[in-house]
Every structure is written in structure tokens, then in C-alpha cells.
Amino acid sequence: MAFISLILGSGLRVNEAVSLDLNDIDRVERAVRVERKGKEGKTAVHISKRAMDDLERYLKIRDDRYPTDSKEKALFLSLPIGPNRKVERLTKRAAQEMVLKYTKWYGKPMSVHNLRHSFATVHWRMNKDVFALQSQLGHTDPKTTQVYSLIFDDTLREEIDKMEDIDWDEL
User: Fold this and answer.
1) Nearest-angstrom CA–CA distance, 83 and 137
2) 2-118 sits in which CATH class?
3) What are the transmembrane regions (predicted)?
4) What is the pTM of this model?
């Protein structure tokens, strides 16, 4: 599932992901250009290698699986339901339902926001850089991003415990 992989590999919001067009993919920078909440113009958001690989696989089957006219520029499309319906851009609601459906199959029902939160949690755990995470998530206020750093009080406790091994006389 390219959509799920993209959220897990970038931390995009659901509306940012469903708003992507084909020309928003930057293969050279391994990024997608998104319209960020509260900002004008598109911003490049880096994505994981796996997410890019999954997007490439999706793009290879996109035209066969979702037959549409060449004017349709939306990256993610929905299958037509019912007679005389056409393939169109995946809606926010349809994306949320799709993610819930597929994550239930794996025994762990999750929302798109849960996937975004998972990305942020792992990013924080691996990098401990609130400003990089803030930029990646598109938060305007660092306080919003700091929520992820507060999740790991144990990490802070462990870091403080490491200080006991320091020979303060050598500093």
C-alpha cells in the first residue's frame, strides 16, 4: 500500500497526501511537494526510501488499475463504485476508511493520524531533533512537536543516569 507507506515514511497529514498530484513527486530529492496547513505555496517534504520505492511500484500499476483520462493528475485515485462513476482523486474520508480497513487486516486498527504519530515517534526516538521533526511534520509551533519528546521520559532518565559515570574532576 503506497498510501500507507507514504504516511509512515514521511509523516504527512491525510489531506496533504490525498492532495498530491503526479507532478508533486521529486524523485531526485526523494521528496513530495505539499501544500502545508497555514502556509502558501508548496513545500518539499522528504520521504523514506521505502516509501519512494512503494510509490514507484504503485505508479507502474496506477494506469491499469485506475483507468482514467490523461487529464487526471491526482496521485492517489479511488476505484469507481456503481455504474457511470468515474475514477477520481481519493478523498480524505475514503483514505481514512482504506487505512482503517487494511490495518484491521493486520490486527491493529489504526487511523491515518496514528500512522503520522508513529512516524513522529520513531523519528524522535532515532534523531532527538525537535526542530528537524517540526520541519518534517509542518508544525508552525515547536510546542506542538515537543509532545513527541515528552513521550520518552524514560530516555531522559537514562541519559541523566549516564551522567553518574562522568569523572567530574576531568571536565
Assistant:
1) 39
2) mainly alpha
3) none
4) 0.80
Beta carbons of 120 and 133 less than 8 angstroms apart: yes
Cα–Cα distance for residue pair 113/121, rounded to 1 Å: 12
**pLDDT digits 0-9 by tens, 109-162:** 999 999 998 898 888 888 888 888 888 898 888 787 777 666 555 665 666 677
User: Structural domain boundaries of the chain?
Assistant: 2-118
CB 95 within 8 A of CB 18: yes
The answer on pLDDT for 166 being more than 70 is no
pLDDT in tens, 45-54: 999 999 999 9
What is the tally of helices (H) and strands (E) in the chain?
8, 5
Phi, psi of 115 (to 5 degrees): -65, -45
To which residue does cell 468515474 refer? 86
Based on the residue annotation, tell me whether 117 is a catalytic residue of this protein.
no
**What pLDDT is attached to residue 147?**
74
Q: Which of 93, 104, 113, 128 is catalytic?
A: 113
Which is nearest to 12 in space by CA: 56, 43, 40, 41?
43
130 neighbors 111 (Cβ within 8 angstroms): no
